[in-house]
Amino acid sequence: MLKKLIGLAKKKNETTREEILGQIAGLIKKIGGEDYNDIPLTLDTNLKDLGFDSIKFMNLVLSLEDVVGKDIEDIISEIDDLSSINTIRDVVDMVMDLM
């Protein structure tokens, strides 16, 4: 019984890669507006191909506060190189590392 309760607690507290992808895709579509509604977003989607410039990228990073549960200062201090983030996979990996 205890193992079952521990397993349920872990499942409740763990955020899966798919859940993070869904959250990131939602943020990208919110930032991009109506133009992004019909674009399928996958882990391999390149942010530059979506038309993400530095302003949209920073809006995405700022929006990660809610996903990660940390202040933007903490997020930026923990990221080694923002320029290495090119795809949605990179964003998801970064979020998972920050959690």
Automatic annotation (TrEMBL):
Transmembrane segments: none annotated. It comes from the Bacteria. Residues 15-99 form the Carrier domain. This is Carrier domain-containing protein. It comes from Puia dinghuensis.
